[in-house]
Amino acid sequence: MTGSSSRTEVLRRIRAALGDRPEDVPVPRDYLQEHGDRTPQETADLLAEHLADYRAHVHRAAPADIAGTVARLLADHGSRTAVVPPGLPQEWLSQVAGVEVTTAGADITARELDAIDSVVTGCAVAIAETGTIVLDGSPDQGVRRITLVPDHHVCVVRAPEQVVAAVPQALPRLDPARPLTWISGPSATSDIELDRVEGVHGPRTLDVVLVSAAV
User: Fold this and answer.
1) Does the reported pTM lie above 0.85?
2) How far apart are CA 187 and CA 98, in angstroms?
């Protein structure tokens, strides 16, 4: 059976199973929305802990320290070039020196991105219980390819407004029609002998700037 005919058969069986049921049947969502009862600060701390478990590097910063932190991370990585989405707040880059910064439009190519050292973005939401950051292509995040090709990703997450405890709390904030990218740590895979290799299908290094007035 070919791929096309397999897909047709699967869809036929789904339609047969659904029968004449209307498409807008309400789905009960009486499951737990989060596990435990945490303060916003405890939720941010849990996010930082799980990000670190996934080998992301977490850097705490006050709102006034974002620019300095971003500049330091690019310098520490030895970046000479960086790409940013068109809607990234310019004040986040105000202290960057010695780095050629390119603003990426939708026409930027993978070949062009392959020559760039780092990318700096915001995020849509971050999930504490899973240590996951979600990008949705908003102006401060840009097209998906800019966060997949460069070897180093600096992602700014604002707490508490962008941090939720669990996946059920994140989903209502996201538009499923948008290009969603779910990131749990730097890109990594393992071969048959379980040797870990990083940077295969995304950045080798993920620096998360966790911004909070409580710092």
Assistant:
1) no
2) 27
